[in-house]
Design a protein that fits this description.
The chain has helices spanning 2-11, 15-28, 31-42, 47-57, 61-104. By secondary structure, the protein is mainly alpha-helical. The model has no long low-confidence stretch (mean pLDDT 90).
Length: 105
C-alpha cells in the first residue's frame, strides 16, 4: 500500500492532494507505524478516517483492510477457542485423576 501511495505522490501536481497523501503516508511509512496502523484497524479504533484517505488514492485498498480484519478476527477467535478448550481438557484430566485417587482411598 505504501509503494503505490508513494508513486502516486510523486506524480501528483495538485498541492491539496499532495498534502493529503503526505499526511496519510506519515501513518503508513515504516514497519512500526504500519504495524500500529494494523492494530488500529483490527481494533476498529477510528480507522475509517485514514482509510477514506487511502481509498481516495487507491480504490482497491479497502479489500486489503477488510480482508485483514476478517482473517485476523478468525485467527484471534480460533486462538481464544483453543485456550478455552485446552483449559477445559486440563481441568477434566485433573478431575479424573482426583476421582481415581478417591476411589482407591
Amino acid at each position: 500500500i505504501v509503494e503505490p501511495m508513494q508513486s502516486i505522490h510523486a506524480d501528483l501536481t495538485n498541492s491539496a492532494d499532495k498534502q493529503r497523501i503526505e499526511e496519510t503516508l506519515v501513518i503508513l511509512d515504516g514497519l512500526d507505524k504500519f504495524m500500529f496502523t494494523l492494530v488500529q484497524v483490527l481494533t476498529q479504533d477510528s480507522f475509517h478516517t485514514f482509510m477514506r484517505e487511502i481509498v481516495h488514492f487507491l480504490p482497491w485498498a479497502w479489500t486489503f483492510f477488510y480482508s485483514y480484519i476478517a482473517i485476523a478476527c478468525l485467527v484471534l477467535m480460533n486462538l481464544v477457542t483453543a485456550i478455552i478448550v485446552e483449559n477445559a481438557m486440563e481441568q477434566s484430566n485433573l478431575d479424573h485423576e482426583q476421582l481415581d485417587v478417591e476411589r482407591t482411598a
